Amino acid sequence: MNLNKFSGKLSVDFGGMQLLRYLSLGGNNLGSGEVDEMKFINSLVNCSNLLVLSIGGNQFRGAIPHSIANLSTTAQSIYLGGNQLHGSIPPGITNLVLVHLSMQINQLTGPIPKEIGQLYNLVRLSLRDNQFSGRIPSSLGNLSLLSELYLNNNKLVGVIPSNLGNLKQLSSLYLSQNDLSGTIPEQLFDITHLSIVLNLAQNHLVGSIPPNIGNFKDLSIFIVSGNNLSSEIPNEVGICSNLEYVYMEGNIFHGSIPSLLSSLKGIREIDFSRNNLSCEIPKFLESLRLEKLNLSFNDLQGEVPRKGIFANVSAISVIGNSRLCGGIAKLQLPKCPNTNSTERQELSSIQDTDLNCKHIVGCNRVVIFHFLLGKKKER
């Protein structure tokens, strides 16, 4: 009975339906606004064959009754998301043998019960878009079968537990829009099965992205925007060969755009805006099949490429980089110095020595080479 137009109070007594296996009422408009209207769950305790309780996407109010912990041990899936439920999760829910537990988009509060870590058969846990507070319980690292974990858009604090790295079957991890702090634990990058999303955006994370991000060979979406991450963007991002979307805006990354990004043949969107990236925009970005590229508000310099994504002014943004020049006319950037003029060549040479990162690296290598050569001759 999903996705109908049922409305009003659910006043059915399910106590006499011992053979009931599926109660699927999701996507209706059920609910009376009464604070105790979830008490109908009490009558489901007698349904000893119940497999699925699905009442998501309605207007149910009130607290989740503690009797939910007494549902049949055959129950595999509970979907309560998209209602107006409040209060906390009854810790006794771990009496059940659940595979799917979804309580997203409600008004649930309090800490996430550590007892959830005893639901060893869980494959999907969604608690997103609530008001849960406190720390992420480290016991979640015991859920070895978990494939999807959604804790985003809550009020969770503290560090990301390192033992989430034990979730070797995880394909999607959403921890965004919380108040998490500390560094990203390296153990997260050992979840080599992570193939869909890693979303850590809009927290207070610090430190660098470890080089073992290259373990994510199958990851499609990587999001760490809106944190306080620093250091250089690791070149190993380019080893994540299946990446399609990379969002790292709003951090403190510095240095150049990694050269190994040229290996990301399936990349569609890159957002490195609002960082401290410097050096030139690499030409290889022209050859990627990008649909959107945002490099705005950094410290990039030199000539903007003209081909590929750079030929589509609506698909790129390079504003807020005062030392860029050239590019297509619609970008309205100043012309680059005319290298045909001897005087400008000399000026450009001085500027390149001071500013152009590639020339700096090249000059350093030449100096080191001659230094070592001189040492050899002295011997």
From TrEMBL:
Q: Where in the cell is it found?
A: Membrane
Major site of localization recorded for this protein = membrane
Q: Which residues cross the membrane?
A: none
**UniProt topology in membrane:** Single-pass membrane protein
Name the GO cellular-component terms: membrane
Q: Which UniProt keywords apply?
A: Leucine-rich repeat, Membrane, Repeat, Transmembrane, Transmembrane helix
Keyword set includes Transport: no
Pfam families for the chain: LRR_1 (PF00560), LRR_8 (PF13855)
Protein's name according to its UniProt entry: Uncharacterized protein
Q: Which organism is it from?
A: Dipteronia sinensis
